[in-house]
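Re-run requested by the PI after the first attempt was lost when the workstation crashed. Everything re-entered from the original request form. Ligand of interest: iron/sulfur cluster.
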Amino acid sequence: MPTLKRTEVLTDVRTHYCPGCGHGIAHRLVAEVIEELGIRERTIAIAPVGCAVLMYDYFNCDMTECAHGRPPAMATGIKRVQPDKIVFTYQGDGDLAAIGTAETIHAANRGENITVIFINNAIYGMTGGQMAPTTLTGMRSTTSQDGRGKHGEGPPLKVCELLRSLDGVCYLERTAVSTPKDVNAAKRAIKKAFQNQIDGKGFSLVEVLSMCPTDWKLSTAQSVDFVNNEMKEAFPLGVYKDKG
Amino acid sequence: MPTLKRTEVLTDVRTHYCPGCGHGIAHRLVAEVIEELGIRERTIAIAPVGCAVLMYDYFNCDMTECAHGRPPAMATGIKRVQPDKIVFTYQGDGDLAAIGTAETIHAANRGENITVIFINNAIYGMTGGQMAPTTLTGMRSTTSQDGRGKHGEGPPLKVCELLRSLDGVCYLERTAVSTPKDVNAAKRAIKKAFQNQIDGKGFSLVEVLSMCPTDWKLSTAQSVDFVNNEMKEAFPLGVYKDKG
Amino acid sequence: MGKKILLKGNEVMCEAAVQAGCRFFAGYPITPQNEVPEYMSKRMPQVDGVFVQAESELAAINMVFGASASGVRCMTSSSSPGISLKQEGISYIAGAELPCLIANVQRGGPGLGNIRASQADYFQAVKGGGHGDYRVIVLAPASVQEIYNLTMNAFDWADYYRNPVMLLGDGISGQMAEPVEIFPYKPIVDLPAKDYILDGCAGRKPRVVKTLVLKPTDGLVTHNEHLQEKYKRIENELSLYEEYQTADADIVIAAYGITARIAKGAVSLARKKGIAVGLIRPITLWPFPSDAFATAAQTTGQILTVEMSHGQFIEDVKLAVNGACPVEFLGKGGGWYPTEELILEKIESMAAATAKGNL
Amino acid sequence: MGKKILLKGNEVMCEAAVQAGCRFFAGYPITPQNEVPEYMSKRMPQVDGVFVQAESELAAINMVFGASASGVRCMTSSSSPGISLKQEGISYIAGAELPCLIANVQRGGPGLGNIRASQADYFQAVKGGGHGDYRVIVLAPASVQEIYNLTMNAFDWADYYRNPVMLLGDGISGQMAEPVEIFPYKPIVDLPAKDYILDGCAGRKPRVVKTLVLKPTDGLVTHNEHLQEKYKRIENELSLYEEYQTADADIVIAAYGITARIAKGAVSLARKKGIAVGLIRPITLWPFPSDAFATAAQTTGQILTVEMSHGQFIEDVKLAVNGACPVEFLGKGGGWYPTEELILEKIESMAAATAKGNL
Amino acid sequence: MDRHETRIIIAGFGGQGIVLIGNVIARAAVIEEKNVVGMVSYGAEMRGGTANATVVISDGEIFNPFVAHPDMAIILNQPSLDRFEPQIGKDGLVLMNTSMIKRGPQRTDLKCIKVDATQIAQKVGNLRVANIVSVGAFIEHTNLLSMSSIEQAIKDLFSSKNPKLVEINLEALHTGAERSRCMQPVR
Amino acid sequence: MDRHETRIIIAGFGGQGIVLIGNVIARAAVIEEKNVVGMVSYGAEMRGGTANATVVISDGEIFNPFVAHPDMAIILNQPSLDRFEPQIGKDGLVLMNTSMIKRGPQRTDLKCIKVDATQIAQKVGNLRVANIVSVGAFIEHTNLLSMSSIEQAIKDLFSSKNPKLVEINLEALHTGAERSRCMQPVR
Amino acid sequence: MNKVHFDKHRCKGCGMCVLFCPQKILRLSDELNDQGFSYPQVSDPDRCTACGLCFRMCPDCAIEVDKDGVKISDKKETTDLAK
Amino acid sequence: MNKVHFDKHRCKGCGMCVLFCPQKILRLSDELNDQGFSYPQVSDPDRCTACGLCFRMCPDCAIEVDKDGVKISDKKETTDLAK
Ligand SMILES: Cc1ncc(C[n+]2csc(CCOP(=O)(O)OP(=O)(O)O)c2C)c(N)n1
Ligand SMILES: Cc1ncc(C[n+]2csc(CCOP(=O)(O)OP(=O)(O)O)c2C)c(N)n1
Ligand code: SF4
Ligand code: SF4
Ligand code: SF4
Ligand code: SF4
Ligand code: SF4
Ligand code: SF4
Ligand SMILES: [Mg+2]
Ligand SMILES: [Mg+2]
């Protein structure tokens, strides 16, 4: 077994993420995949507005920040004029599935040849714990204090299930970072999503169920349990689409 | 058989629609349903931005116009504060499935107790024939002059298929107004969509494949054929969801 | 006077809205106004009102559009980037002449900027960031108590004039906690019947809410003239400001909101140093209290505009003054704020220049 | 001079863009600018450029954001309500200091309004409809030939200053066809290397495009100061206007775009009647050619502002004049346009009032 | 016309080729190196309803692109005549398609050229060229533009599309001119 | 303090209950019918990093809600002391939690009260009340607010949530006051 | 007596009724209405079965169908908002 | 020699490594690092199998694991953008 250590695709800085935050694991996986595929020098990454907004400080590649929810549109602009570059967005559930719903769906439907890493932590992390489109039924947040579903909030939005019907979509998989096995699977999925882009196959999205101990108001261990028990039930893991 | 004539739910004015336009038939069906259900005096209708923007002149009930693509949001505002009223939106494919994608999906997912009449004519009618999200593959429009799909436009977006996965949705049916049989089926579907609202069952949407002879640059007969042959193939008719 | 309790500006705005009968709120989270949807999500169900966390700011403003067309008092809230997204909706609501309250708890821009306090959305609020000739009544509170009072008034003015009202705060006024007296709502104007609302046409002719005016050909010209007449009326009837020690002032400071508070401190410092300084603090930014400045310009030597932005508010001050006296500037954006000392310094240099006849 | 061909303003803008090397266009249909996406959808593939019909105006401006960060010349186009939707994106692009061209073929507002020509988005364009202290270079062509020339220049200025440029037209300038000479593009400034673009970090350090500035704490203040310095520089270097018969004018008309053409006709009518009238037509609306007006105000008796809106442009004229002479107003919104005769009438009444000393 | 400027409106039903008339006239003016501004009523007005286009032709700078009070009008149907008659300038000229207009202008100051354009077009063999028939008559009765410029404009417009169209339109043009040649404008 | 106005900053790690300190002090001031402005650093700064709150207490109108140069500081950890020390006003007062601060202030003009708040809290039986221990010491060494107002504020804040919390926080308050009573501020 | 009645003022001459009449008894007029449109005429009224398909397919509510063949109303002129 | 190395400056004391170490040989320190966080300590280094699960689950890249038990590098102080 080789030495396991931080890939050089991540900068040598401490992140601003809270202790136990799943973003950190997801960052590492994406960075390792970029390293393993040898694409760092032709990668352009798009940071969301969300807790990951500062990821431009953490990744050793060209990066841009973007208006909240618009990364798929911006990615379209970048990829269309630079089809030989590897373009990926990294987005939270608020960014991708609330304000950015239209941009997500239409980039997917156009089959833009991009990779989307979708961090589903069932909450608006950066703004302090408001209800996300993916907040679970009955789950409390600062804007669903009686538990989601009591006041017409509707059920959680399932992004992979939603996008599956779009003919333009190439690859959809839902993963998690709450057990070592899940982390390995997530990395495989992320690698595939990038490889698809390299191979010109079109729109690939990997959903990552991720811990937000701070806004869930849970300990690390409880957060891991929450993903493994509650979230995986509401958002079953697996491949939702694979055009091959 | 009773006398067949214009229902009083439609005003006695000539519409601005082109000869052979499907909007006219769809208007009549909606109006007849409102009449038959006896709900005219508690109906509030939301006109889109699109060829149907002037429908407030044609319907004998309370009506509002709305910003392009936002009718489901506006309907949410109206219905939530007046749950006893019958609120419906009437939207084109550009309005509902392009600029209004996010509003459509989230109103559907919240399960807003409203009725959406979705006129799919595969084109931007009012603005003069640009590509719509539902324009067929290979179909020419003023912004897809080589036929859709040649320059990364992606395949047509199928709204019923897309919304089907949302747990909040009660009823989805795709219909047409291009044969007498289809017209009858469309009316049944529209009636059901309103009845669902009366019964408090939640979000119901009826898609109507509709002729746009002008922007398709086809005669009436050719337009009817286009719906019956091309559109129905790309957009199969039928019930896509029925929670009962 | 009732007992005072300690509350944040954002919370007080919400409670004032609830007291004033606001029964519909739609919003989308954004710092530094997150207390607003959080408070409303809890409070609205308690008063049989509706809270909707919208999928976006666009959806939120259009939900409010619908709620207002239904006749209910309603509001939305956001901060700078989110307010930019509402501009199309605001133009529609103004065009349709519907009342509502829009709160902008401003943060640093442009773009994502930061989350510190700022006043750099002045142009957007006062000149109109949306398209077309429309006006929004803009209120600029300087204390938590004033947030309470003005929020209540805002709903009255919105209904009275059938016009959107914007409460233009910032990260500080929204986040700071001050003792505030929560008193019951009483309308300050005679409220007209809402004879335009859509509630089903039972027993009456159908109504239409719209902004499209195609017929007759010059229908939209007429509609705009009608709007302008209303705006003229509002300008005549509604123009609020606080004047502070201006009577003998050689230098008058122009400032609003949080900046005006600090400027008031600077006035005291300057007076202690023997410099006769006063302050005019517009409370309504539109209508702008132009007369106050025009009058002051007749008697004072110069005016100093202080704002947490790069020269926006000053344009209205200059337009009011119309060359009658020099107007100096102190301001920056991006989260900068002036201190009393900084303002004093500027005043001293202005005073010194005058003394030297070196204007 | 080459052969002239008859083309619509909207088409000419597109062809000028293509000639100037624009290779990315994203837009969403809206009347009266539909010729633009239609032309571009055909033309872009011919020159190996990219045309994307976006799902919305929001998506379009953010696609342009991405294309510009990639270093390509790029543009989007819309009309009033669609431009309102782009305001957040414009604020971001300005904050990130990226070049691009945004065309607003204005129509009547507010709200859905109508599709006739209008100039009522002046404030939005010139003061900034988005949030924060940012500026967009705003160009106002008055003929189809000028659309051609200015569109080319726009791309140069955008690159040179790393700033968005807005072409502010209207339903008439976009729809009217005039003979135009299509000449090849030649840059009018020395274009700096695009050393900020994102094209993969091969052989160099990674780059970041951003508008969020959190560190150091006053980083955003510094960034804003930097922007303001740039804006000052642009104001010093770029301010275009046409002056017409002002030398001896007792009355100077201030007007831009289509309105200015008609005003020019009125100048001729007035001159025939023996009234000494001139015209100043700003070509850049921001930077505003304030000096031209300040200078004119010293020698002329009064200024008449004519605009197809309810008093927006006039504010910049008044700010420039700063009380040095009276500024009168003629204007309306919603699709109204002035005729030469109407302007003449206003001029005659102004001249008569002056004659009577009755200002 | 002391300004040597002529303001023209062309109006009729949507399908009558109004835009093309404007286009042909404006292009002919460009060929003659005149200044010209052409414009078409655009957008969301009733489809299939009336359409109109305007052309301003001038030897000097054209100030106002709007045509509020046309000097000349080419009117192809009744509703358009009803709508635009009051706007035509004093002593203006109206060319009207009598196939579609039963009730002529009420005003007595207008010069009126009548041509049975639809019928003539039918004889030429294509109903759709009634518009160019009208142009022929219009050019015949005004000395605004030369017939050869109009011919050239028609060639420029159609040759890239379909050479047969050039032929039939030229025929329509000339027939329109001939058939109206004998008629005197009526006041 | 000739303006009878006191500007206070409270700073420490995110989890140390900084906001609560500000809240208790501000509410006590309201109880004493003083003017007060409280503010908390908000938003997207590093989570789990340093947090701070400010309180301004005055007999007169409070002009400036910002606290750029605090008269008094309650500092619960080392990074906060490092960050805020330069900003404290001349001759200002610093209450510091010596459990978390190894390196005291470098400036010699500052009055410094040291309290082993974390350790004391541990003894009171709950690490989390170190913040209130600090408040006890702070009130003991300033004559800004009376101990009874602080007690009332604590009761107001906690009684609705959990009566037991009132008890333990009051104990923390008093222990903090006692343990620091003998210490003299050091310069 | 006709069982089907056409409002020539509302009619836009689209021909949907002609297309869908199962009896093939409809044709469009050579005359134009005041909007410039042809409108349908019944060539053989007796063969009309009052099936209503023409009504069902007419986008402009320009048709009334009555089984008993009673002319339903003498239509007043239609208000024309679209003009 | 340790096969697992912790960068105490990067560590945020979340305890993921502790939670997922199959050998249960990790615990959090009583000491705090300069950010105020506990950090992991190896109670019984010999039982470490260099399985890498701690590395895999660490959100902060604060762990290095080496099968040969060679200390990989003497870490220089980590740049702290977040301060
Ligand atoms: C237009 C706009 N609206 C709202 C915000 C405020 N905002 C910042 S991040 C965020 C949501 C973050 O949630 P998510 O996307 O789930 O990311 P997370 O922080 O959970 O990783 C919001 C609403 C903004 N910056 N811009
Ligand atoms: C914000 C905004 N963008 C664009 C438009 C222009 N616009 C008017 S209608 C329309 C689309 C119409 O297409 P569709 O929704 O399919 O309706 P149809 O006319 O085909 O019935 C567009 C893009 C607008 N009015 N507002
Ligand atoms: S708030 Fe949640 S998502 Fe954001 S950094 Fe903290 S744990 Fe991670
Ligand atoms: S353009 Fe198409 S959709 Fe619009 S009215 Fe005409 S036929 Fe109907
Ligand atoms: S009712 Fe039936 S048979 Fe009679 S005309 Fe209509 S379609 Fe034909
Ligand atoms: S279907 Fe209706 S509109 Fe069409 S031709 Fe027949 S009657 Fe006329
Ligand atoms: S490498 Fe494995 S055994 Fe060793 S400390 Fe890490 S998790 Fe435990
Ligand atoms: S998982 Fe990483 S950050 Fe968390 S305690 Fe272990 S070493 Fe520290
Ligand atoms: Mg999230
Ligand atoms: Mg359509």
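Saved to the shared folder this time. The helical segments of chain B are 22-37, 71-81, 93-99, 101-110, 159-163, 180-198, 213-216, 220-234.
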